[in-house]
Write a structure and sequence with these properties.
Helix content of chain B: 10-25%
Order of helices and strands of chain B: EEHEE
Number of helices of chain B: 1
Oligomer: heterodimer
Shape of chain B: globular
Largest interface: A-B, 14 and 14 residues
Number of strands of chain A: 7
Distance between the termini of chain B: 15 Å
Strand order of the largest sheet of chain B: 2-1-4-3
Strand content of chain B: 25-35%
Number of domains of chain A: 2
Chain lengths: 296, 65
């Protein structure tokens, strides 16, 4: 009995720690502090408990209990729905929206984090049961590191060269580099855009990157992130300075325009480099035989 | 066809009525370039649209979806 208590305790502590490590509220303003934190830490604790209890249940052996634990684990699928619904509701009042692809990505990540918590707790309690607590501590640390690494996906800077682009006009057409962004009607607006507007060009490194950046969802995620950090000069029903990302159909390059509150071009480039590549936007034409042949 | 969320022209501002044909959007006449720009801005602000330049002297105010 004493042994089982230690097994469960170590598993729960390791699992909850893993959830804490993966819970960061950064520039994306999500989850909000403190209520979102409490929700996710509580769910993380429950997930850790589910993972930690599994080993003693199997060792006893109590297979009914183990089966119930599997059923409990399935409840974490609900987290994805919860996140999706919350973010979709907030979306309606955002001036620059996240886009459904980004929301799906975030919701998926939240679900996956809880499974990583279960695995961490399971591995730690399992190690304690088989080899004792010193090994369990080692396994816990390794699981935490692996969980952290698994949560770091690809960024835009990994798939494309992000370079400053010249903001200029071809008569009434606003251009970033050689990408047409939009028609700006009034001369006063054009002057403001030339003075304060900032442009960036994304140059995809290969065909996979080109198709990934083609995705409207990926571009919307970039626009959302840069607007959240640097600000925009748009307001409700005053959308003439809307940040936009348009494609050069010939080269696949993406021109990004932003009229920021903080017009720091260097920061803009760095922010775009760190925007995550959205899972549902990822394209892999080069994984197919004909995709590789056509890319020659 | 549902056009509630579609992009549409809210108003046309022109110095010359000969440049605009009959259509769904109201046409506003302006007597000078300055008046035309001001009208386009006012209409855009009032109706939540964006002024665009057709480069032939005509401005349109467009509601983007």
């Amino acid at each position: 009995m004493q042994n089982h208590v230690l097994t469960i305790l170590l598993g729960v502590v390791a699992g909850t720690l893993a959830r804490l490590v993966m819970l960061r509220s950064d520039y994306r303003h999500y989850p909000s502090y403190p209520h979102g934190f409490v929700t996710h830490i509580s769910l993380g604790f429950i997930a850790a408990l589910v993972g930690a209890v599994a080993v003693p249940a199997l060792a006893k052996p109590d297979y009914v209990a183990a089966t119930f634990l599997i059923l409990a684990a399935q409840q974490f699928r609900e987290i994805r729905n919860m996140e999706r619904e919350t973010l979709a509701r907030i979306e309606q009042t955002k001036l620059v929206q996240r886009g459904s692809d980004y929301i799906e990505g975030i919701a998926g990540v939240f679900e996956a984090r809880n499974y990583l918590v279960i695995i961490t707790a399971l591995a730690t309690s399992g190690a304690n049961h088989l080899w004792g607590w010193p090994v369990a501590l080692g396994v816990a640390v390794i699981s935490l590191v692996i969980s952290h690494l698994l949560m770091q996906g690809e960024c835009v800077g990994d798939i494309a060269d992000v370079v400053p682009g010249k903001v200029h006009f071809d008569r009434s057409l606003l251009m970033v580099g050689d990408v047409v962004i939009m028609n700006v009607g009034l001369p006063a607006f054009r002057e403001k855009v030339l003075e304060e507007g900032r442009g960036v060009v994304l140059k995809p490194r290969d065909d996979d990157a080109r198709l990934t950046l083609d995705s409207i969802g990926q571009r919307q995620a970039i626009l959302h992130d840069i607007s959240v950090i640097l600000g925009t000069k748009i307001d409700e029903k005053e959308m003439e300075f809307m940040p936009l990302a348009k494609k050069n159909a010939d080269t696949g390059e993406i021109g990004i325009f932003l009229l920021p509150n903080e017009p720091d071009l260097e920061c803009l480039v760095e922010i775009i480099k760190k925007v995550p590549v959205i899972e549902s936007s990822k394209a892999r034409p080069l994984s197919s035989y004909y995709g590789r042949r056509a890319a020659d | 066809m549902d056009t509630a969320g579609a992009t549409r022209i809210l108003a046309v501002v022109t110095p010359d009525s000969g440049l605009v044909g009959p259509g769904g959007a109201p046409v506003f006449m302006a007597h000078s370039q300055e008046e035309q720009e001001r009208l386009a801005l006012l209409l855009a602000r009032i109706m939540g649209g964006v002024p665009h330049d057709l480069e032939n002297g005509v401005y349109i105010v467009v509601k983007h979806s």
